[in-house]
Amino acid sequence: xxxxxxxxxxxxxxxxxxxxxxxxxxxxxxxxxxxxxxxxxxxxxxxxxxxxxxxxxxxxxxxxxxxxxxxxxxxxxxxxxxxxxxxxxxxxxxxxxxxxxxxxxxxxxxxxxxxxxxxxxx
Length: 122
Fold this sequence. Notes:
This protein has a single domain, classed as Putative cytoplasmic protein, CATH 1.10.3100. With 122 residues, the chain is mainly alpha-helical. 65% of the residues lie in helices and 3% in strands. The longest helix has 24 residues. InterPro entries: Aca2_YdiL-like, Lambda_DNA-bd_dom_sf, YdiL_sf.
């Protein structure tokens, strides 16, 4: 994974650099910024974790697509309401045992469907 790919995936997952540094890399924000700037190579374990998060996101998208299967795209917004928690504490209360990374992945999916006009946010 190169620097641009790391940054693109981080942003897609709605993580800021300091969150990603802490939750994924276990490093300082500056180290993460070096990876994204191409000044240091992206560690293999970080690449693996990012790939796992992207797979988790794809699985959620597949689950949503299964729920709306057969519905015309322009009617999906009428049947699809996705949660969007502005604070992790609210997400955690509704989803005990889930992590901050789980929250960001789910937020990313909800934002995708909302931005594409295919869901309402709850």
